[in-house]
Amino acid sequence: MAALCRRFTGFHFLLVLVSLSISSLVxxxxxxxDEGEQFTExxxxxxxxxxxxxxxxxxxxxxxxxxxxxxxxxxxxxAIAQLVQKFQIRDLELSFTQGRWNYENWGGSDPISSTxxxxxxxxxxxxxxxxxxxxxxxxxxxxxxxxGLFCSSINFLESSTSYTTPSFxxxxxxxxxxxxxxxxxxxxxxxxxxxxxxxxxRDKAGLATLLDRPSIYKGYYHxxxxxxxxxxxxxxxxxxxxxxxxxxxxxxxxxHSLLDGAIxxxxxxxxMFKRNLTGSCVLARTxxxxxxxxxxxxSKLEExxxxxxxxxxxxxxxxxxxxxxxxxxPFPEESNSILFEYVNSKEYExxxxxIKWKLPFVWSSPHAPFHASRFLMGSGTERGSIxxxxxxTKSDEYFRSKSNECRMQAVVFQVVPWYVKVYYHTLQIxxxxxxxxxxxxxxxxxxxxxxxxxxxxxxxxxxxYPCTVQSVALTLDFDKGFLHIHEYPPDAxxxxxxxxxxxxxxxxxxxxxYIGDDSSVHSPLLLxxxxxxxxxxxxxxxxxxxxxxxxxxxxxxxxFTCTVLxxxxxxxxxxxxxxxxxxxxxxRSKDATKRGLIPLIVSKITSKLRGMPRSKPLLIFAxxxxxxxxxxxx
Amino acid sequence: MxxxxxxxxxLEIAKLLREYIVAVGAESYYHKFVPRANxxxxxxxxxxxxxxxxxxxxxxxxxxxxxxxxIIRAPRxxxxxxxxxxxxxxxxxxTYSDAVSLGIGFSIFSLLSHVTWxxxxxxxxxxxxxxxxxxTVDSWLKDYHGPxxxxxxxxxxxxxCFEENNSDSLDHIKVEGHNSYVxxxxxxxxxxxxxxxxxxxEEERDSLSIYAEASNGQMPNLDLxxxxxxxxxxxxxxxxxxxxxIYFLKxxxxxxxxxxxxxxxxxxxxxxxxxxxDITSADYVEGTATLASSIYYQALxxxxxxxxxxxxxxxxxxxxxxxxxxxLNNENVRSAFLLKTGRLIEGVIRSxxxxxxxxxxxxxxxxxxxxxxxxxxxxxxxPFGILIAPLPIVAAALFSSNNGSSNKDGxxxxxxxxxxVFLIHLWAMITSLLPYVLLQLPLGTPSSFASAWAAxxxxxxxxxxxxxWSSSIDCGWELLKSxxxxxxxxxxxxxxxxxxxxxxxxxMLIVPMCLLVKPARKQTQGVFAKALMLTSNLALLVVAFPPxxxxxxxxxxxxxGNIDIGDFWEWAQILWSWNSATYxxxxxxxxxxxxxxxxxxxYPCIGSSSKA
Lengths: 634, 612
Prior knowledge:
The structure holds 2 protein chains of 2 kinds. Chain A is an alpha+beta fold. Chain A is built from 18 helices and 27 strands. In chain A, a hairpin with a 2-residue loop joins strand 18 (420-431) and strand 19. Chain A is elongated. Chain B has 3 domains: 2-244 and 303-378, Zn peptidases (Aminopeptidase, 3-Layer(aba) Sandwich), CATH 3.40.630.10; 245-302, no CATH class; 389-611, no CATH class. Chain B has 20 helices and 10 strands. Chain B has helices at residues 2-23, 96-112, 133-145, 153-166, 222-235, 246-250, 252-271, 281-300, 307-311, 331-353, 377-388, 390-405, 414-438, 446-470, 477-498, 500-516, 527-543, 546-556, 566-577, 581-601, and strands spanning 27-33, 65-72, 81-89, 121-128, 188-197, 207-211, 239-241, 316-323, 366-370, 373-376. In chain B, the strands form 2 sheets. Chain B has an 8-stranded mixed β-sheet with strand order 1-2-4-3-5-8-6-7, sandwiched between helices. In chain B, strands 9-10 form a two-stranded antiparallel ribbon. In chain B, helix 5 (222-235) links the parallel strand 6 (207-211) and strand 7 (239-241). Classes of the chains: A alpha+beta, B alpha/beta. At the A-B interface, helix 8, strand 15, strand 19, strand 27 and helix 18 of A face helix 11 of B.
């Protein structure tokens, strides 16, 4: 617009101003409109069993698909809209994660863990609305655009060795999906700032003001996610979530308090984030805070006789919640989780939600039926094996109560870089430590073998086994490849990363149903919780030690070879000059011929160089000598 | 009843440790295993794989070992790497120093559980060393790196008997039952520290002994030792010691040599003050003693502690053994000691934690002459090369001189010599595998084993000679010597790659013997020269015979007086049970070389032999 203003003069300028003000008036009414763009902000707080607190920020922006808005938006970030338009994105999920999600203590089957527990580093997957042949180029361009947008090296996912095409893992049986992960990407404020810029109020107002960098990066887990869905019907939905696990301050006075310390630390928003929450983002349609008490806490509360009360002998929730939302469970005899809702609207009085624990209390989070972990077997720099083990958590009585024909399904998705040469025929599956016939256990398998310097290896596997199984283990043998010296990443001596494997349990869902009239609540976060999300867990990133060359060797070899060559040519020149017979003859015929010295030397050298076939073996000898020298020196 | 009580006591320690670990908020589990004896597997040298078949068929409930393991997940780390801390203790006979080392281990662990700087995970293994700490650590590492999925039936039996034994007695300890036996891992190991406290009195200061030698002369990266040494000396004011051989500290000839060197260096310094190689006599003596111990432990090929188990998996590890100035019963001494050791270990862990890459510069091949001084491979290979170099030259000289004199048979005469050498080597190889057969026999004492071994070996040798004589191989001693020298040179150079120290010590014995050996009946000019030749040959032949060398070393370094023939068997047993390549060297290279030299010495010299 500014460029426009400069081009036109006087009258035109006035005209533009008028039209601008009119349009702003018109669009101003749209903010509250259901048909137009919307922005909501929500924060979920949840005490965790290991004395930590989960904070889950959920910001959602939607843009209407109607064409009248043209290229302009009010709330919706233009950068994202352009991205969607340019690359024809249907679905996209990008996450930046630091730390690991603790599936044992922080839960493995609730909606938060199944949608917001992400592998360390960067993970990106996207589906496109473009013809199959164009997908790879679109993906490459997208990675570059995203890496510019989020100040990170997502562009490393451009190379065909780092992304893959899963066929059935993400539940979408489509060929236009691409998946890539960068486990070594460090995540810090430089990634958070561009992410915040996509919010209409940035971190100047509303819930995002809580994001005090030192306190959120001091946490145990930090995952910022961007989820994008675009359809013709509903337009573009942009969900930005930030999941952090923080440790409220505990007074560690003495070692004694550690041992009897079953008492949970009390916390409030201001004590955890070191900021006060005053007012919401004006542009937000809703701004609310939810505090969740897990069902194991609620069952304890019910035992004590205070059903859904927020102020009782066990804990004290302050201030009083605006509304209590209860989960409905298919099993009526069990207790359900409770959400306490606060509406963040007061401008002048800070909303300082917090829990004060009064009694020592221990509970456990809902686990996924199987805990997935992955490790390397073998040692040395030649070969090894990857093992993925699923260990029953025995937590879910639901399965135990069922009869024997209950069958569990698990989908394993594993991407392995090409230099880790996996032999897929060596796949062995042990159930309860007994080797199984592969055809009995595997329901579906898809293997894309790796291709040197072109494709990573991909394994997708659907396992079916009885629910009563204690442990399932998969092993795959691999050889470690040799790389060229320029193919090593920085810090090659640390080893090479194998990205996290993904284990999903497709017949388990982490959906929740809440009582309460949906029209009045209308919370995108709760809607999200009610979606049928598959329970999944990511395994650890693996570090494979590789043989590395001595990177300083070329330098040593070059210096030494040059020295040897210089010595050689120096002495050669010397020998050429000092031909005694010639010198004597010269001395004798000094008077007879008055020839210049330099032309004489030049002619001698040229005549010598013409007949010199021995320089090549000498060069080889020098190189060998220098390599030897290098090893002796080091 | 008493046994049962005691067993519960053993497990009680692990239970208590686990309770403490859980209380600081770390993950924890029990590692359980049944120890098994090291057996002689002739084909298992260099391979760390073990059969699962030799598990005891029905392990009794009391025979297994329970270790408590704690894991701290680095708060913001990605869990790719770990640092391992091991504190061995003997559960059956817990001493006060064991308790102190466990205390240090736990206090460091609980400190690390809430620090913010961790980038790598921390694993603390409280290893019950009832059956030897190496066995325990090794079995834990084996399960870490290569769990055996099939054939776990015996373990399940263990589980059952463990559960029923303890359900009644230990229910007051609240542990989340079923998950506590699930083996948990934490990424690739970056480094490991074995932490021990011994209660032996030191003179002036608290001291720290560093043990680093792993099997077959492998060493951890020098930087790990340097970190521990630097922090111990410059930060905590500890006295750092590494092993030294006392004989050299006391020997007067070493002192004399040191004094001579000191005089020379002072003289040199007077000539040119810029020359900086002055060394005091005391330094020289101490350096020699330390170097000798460093070479000795590397040459033996037996790890000096449980850190050796880590080296098998390419993990750098050292044992840090602390000993306090005075008795730990004194409250003040104890707290100061705990503070120092704790700070030192925290510092080492922090230094390793801050490394982005693992230790990788080529400082794996070295000898230590002091805790902060070393001899690198670039220096020690040169004397060895010079020592070995005459062998091929002499072999070539002997071969060419012999070939030149008798060219009737053509140049194939050496094949007959090679046949003799080959047969003797074959005999040596059979001898080296004999213990495997002997162990099947019920012989009882080590001395009877040793004599049986010797008798059978000599029998086989006689048979070999019978074969040689019946086929009437006569090739002249010069050719025989030349082929033998070639074989010895090849063997020594191969051994120098596998375990340099063994090759170095071996070369010092073999090379002069090989070069000097001559038939005793050979005519030489001059009585004096002949006598000199004979005595030197005899002396070398005696010294180079492995049992004789062992005997001499034993008497020199002041071992107990009575020497039994069974000692040799026990010594050999130590070597093969640790998969030491020294055993192979002694029997495959050294022994045949010695036999051939003896053969040449006793050669019925026929006049046709020319002068060498």
